[in-house]
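In this section we walk through a basic example: taking a raw amino acid sequence and producing a predicted 3D structure, encoded as discrete structure tokens. The instruction is simple. Fold the sequence below.
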Amino acid sequence: MKQKVNKIKRAPVIGVIWKVTFDSLKKNPVIWIPFCISGILKLFGLAVIFLSIFYPLSIVFAPIIKTLWGEAFLHYPFNFSLMPKLFYYVQIAVYIFLDGLLSGMAVWMVYQANEGKKPTLLDSLKKVLPKYVTLTAFLLTIYLIVYFISYGENLALMKSIKFKAVAFLMNKGLLQFINVFVNFFIILLIETVAAFVIPFVVLEDKRYFKGLAGSFGLVKRVFFSAFILIAIPTLISLPFSLLKAGFPALINKTLPEITFLVLGLSVVVTIFIDCVVTTSLAFLFLLRKELA
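The resulting token sequence is shown next.
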């Protein structure tokens, strides 16, 4: 990317970053591997959920499902109604406990590629593993922020149900889709504000609070660029979020198995989104450091 720095005044920063990102991913496909690992684990969890009502997995999972949600969800087609909820738990577990480490490995490999070195998984793991606790704490913080915002939205919704407009939207089945757009924008803002925490932790050995402070300081200078680099690829996931919100109607008009298909495809799309976003933000971070 160093040869691109002198061209910044002649080309939009975002265009430069995306060109460097895709060139680097093409030349160093190993950068994809951490995101593929995350996706494979999620798909494995989805497969376990699908097979949980069948022998031999039912020996372990059937009593749990029966106790927590009822016996009906052990039978077709109700098992597909429970699948999105169970898969959400799988995604959260992978996100909190593994995605920080995997994203940190990708950021280190981007740095290595930018320095003209050949990035490897083993070297990146050795570099990032000592920072596992810090990275996990960061992603746990992001999850808790989103969770409490969602909790507040639900409380506000319960209190606003007395208004005719809200009741109308709920009766028409539109409220959940509006909620998807609102949450999509909120999550984009949160991810933008915290966009450079992982690069600060991995590349500058910052601890938790200094990493957050560093990210806040850098985002103030490159907010628009960071927001666009996150928002454009993430838009690809929006149709899947809308489909998930409309699962009951979608199942009624198609087949219950559509749930499994949509969830599986959403994981594949997420691999691409996470890889492009993480890599482009890492290059933006490095670019700002070089310009400084």
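Looking at the output, two observations stand out. Residues 4-11 have pLDDT under 50 and may be disordered. DSSP finds 14 helices and no strands in the chain. In the next section we compare this with other chains.
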